[in-house]
Amino acid sequence: MKVALKIFDVECSYGATKVLDGLSFTIERGSFTGILGPNGSGKSTLMRCISRVLKPSKGAVLLDEENLFGLDLKDVARKMAVVTQETAVDFSFTVAEVVMMGRSPYLGRFQSEGEKDFEIARKVMELTNTLILADRSITTLSGGERQRVIIAKALAQDTEIILLDEPTSHLDINHQVEILGLLRRLNRENGLTVVTVFHDLNLASQYCDSVILMRDGRIFTIGRPDESLTAANIKDVFGASVLVGKHPVTGRPAVMILSREPRRSAKTGSIHVVCGGGAGADILRLLASHGYSVSAGVLNTGDIDWETAKLLELRLAEEAPFSLISDQSHEENLELIKGADACVMAGIPFGHGNLKNLEAVCLAWEWGKPVLLIEEQQIEERDFTGGRASLIYEELKKKGAVVLQGTAGIQHALAELLHD
After folding, report:
1. With contact defined as beta carbons under 8 Å apart, do 50 and 195 qualify?
2. I need a labelling partner for 401 at 20 to 30 A (CA). Which of 6, 116, 211, 315 fits?
3. pLDDT tens string for the chain (420 positions)?
4. What is the DSSP letter of 385?
């Protein structure tokens, strides 16, 4: 694919402070690229450099193989439109007049707009849902409405490339989806090259072909969303602990931030949690944040509970993805139970593949371990073993296992069980 933009060994500084340090990458024509990073990482400075506002102190930005800063300003404006974070317009222009300003690169000094210019302006106002605002003064609009007008103005330039610095920051969720959906449609159908700064990892994941992560003025990584937006990369770049799963519809990465609850003073108990498939993530996080020594199992590698246990650095028994619990992992689970003071079982569904987890909880009871069952659904609704799991589960309840309808009282129940 042909390269639209090439950034080669670019450095930029504000006074004596170096903000961009040796950046090199390419933007392919017809791609949709997202730039992400924490505040101060250099994202906006990079956009200012690419948009010809800030000249690099070293290196070069090439637009269609030509040095960007050697081109005529109007020539650049016919190829590349820019939407900045600052959308202030100080004069009472109407929306239609502001959008028409996007046609100025195609007009001579004293040339008036023609039929083609008005048609393009009308089309982009329809696309951005701003036509209804055409006769309104730009100064009377809300931040979200004004942002859509500025995007319409950029689209009116009818360029091959559009640069956007956090274009959805002033928009509600409906207009975020509307604008990004429009940009992606123009990208797919018209070959528009889109480069945009995001602050929302999930929006970038769902709309971008390529994601650039920045840290401290440098490129940390570039790749497809599934390559760049990993839990490890996000931890390194943003310092945030997250779970990264798959969006149920698109299959793209879905990022969930784990709350930073302070660890409290250590409890005098260790808890083994039998869970899986996401049913135990909140329980694991809650118990760990309250200072309990927590273990978990048997968990299939890659599921939400497994990811949570890994991020919390818990001991766990694990099994391969989508696999039956093997004798080996079952024994590892039992060893963890033996070392625990109590056992908690999340409200997980049971099939023939994980029935050994239920059997492990029964053994915990036989070994004299207090057992706490989280019952958000009746066992019959979670039993896919032809009734076998229900029989074992009900027998466990008859023997004296404590049942909670949800996780709200789990700390109090454990304190009672452990005589804390």
Report:
1. yes
2. 315
3. 577 899 999 999 887 788 999 999 999 999 999 999 998 899 989 999 999 988 999 999 999 889 999 999 989 999 999 988 765 566 788 999 999 999 888 887 777 778 899 999 999 999 888 999 999 998 888 777 888 888 899 999 989 999 998 888 777 788 888 889 889 989 999 899 999 999 899 999 999 999 999 999 999 999 999 999 998 899 999 988 787 877 878 889 888 776 554 444 455 688 999 998 888 888 888 888 788 889 998 998 888 888 888 878 889 999 988 888 999 999 999 999 999 999 999 988 888 888 999 999 999 999 999 998 988 888 888 888 888 999 999 989 888 888 888 777 787 778 777 764
4. S
Q: How far apart, in whole angstroms, are the C-alpha atoms of residue 61 and residue 416? A: 66
The DSSP secondary-structure symbol of 276 reads -
Contact 365, 417 (CB under 8 A): no
Residues of the chain with CATH 3.40.50.450: 270-417
What's the CA gap between 296 and 183, in Å, rounded? Answer: 44
Residue (of 142, 117, 145, 144) closest to 131 by Cα position: 145
Contact 229, 204 (CB under 8 A): yes
DSSP code per residue over 340-374: -SEEEE----B-TTTHHHHHHHHHHHHTT--EEEE
pLDDT of residue 262: 45
Using an 8 Å Cβ cutoff, are 220 and 21 in contact?
Answer: no
Give CATH superfamily name and number for 3-256. Answer: P-loop containing nucleotide triphosphate hydrolases (3.40.50.300)
- What are the φ/ψ torsions at residue 409 (nearest 5 degrees)? -105, 20
Query: Which helix (H) or strand (E) element contains residue 344?
Result: strand 342-345
- What residue spans in the chain does CATH classification 3.40.50.300 cover? 3-256
The fold for domain 270-417 equals Rossmann fold (3.40.50)
Q: Are 63 and 80 in contact (CB under 8 A)?
A: yes
Return phi, psi of residue 254, to 5°: -120, 120
Q: Is the pTM above the cut of 0.85?
A: no
Amino acid in the structure at residue 403: V
Give whole-number Cα distances, 210 to 20, 21, 28, 193, 194, in Å. 20, 21, 10, 12, 10
Q: Which two tokens stand for residue 96?
A: 């239609």
**CA distance linking residue 403 with residue 372, whole number of Å:** 6
